What does this fold into?
Amino acid sequence: MGLMGFFKERAAVTAGKALYASAVGQARTPAFYTGMAVPDTLMGRFELYTLHIILLVLRLKGRGPGAAETVQALFDAYLAGLDIALREMGVGDLSVGKKMKKLGRAFYGRVGKWDEALTADDAEALKALVARTVYEEAPAADPAPLAAYARAAHAALGAQSGESLLQGQASWPKLDQ
It folds into this structure.
């Protein structure tokens, strides 16, 4: 084993990064913005991106130390992605930390709200949450299709084996392009 063997990434970190890439890829599906009218704005994209990360976190929550390490790696990749996006938008170094702290608080608040709405399987509460978060900039948009998607994605991830998720493989519901 060469020197690089000492620096090999842990399996949970690799899985967390792969889950992050999967969530970002799914959140970029055009059907969200065309068919479901998610606002194609900074906040609309942030909310959709965050929803997918939260769905993964909820699926892996309480599944043991391997899952906890994978969730931490997923969250770290999420924060790194937000940091890069802020810098690319021109946010100065002195402001990035404050904005990241605010986004981190928003994430944790949303985890609890999404968990409550999905666990209760209350369609009206889920639609209200989608309207309040994803469609905040588009109050006339119908939150029902995205709420139904969130419920379907939650169920699909719940039906997926924990092992495949811990290997960085997530299966998302297909959307019509």
Observations:
- The chain has a mean pLDDT of 88.
- The first helix runs from residue 11 to 27.
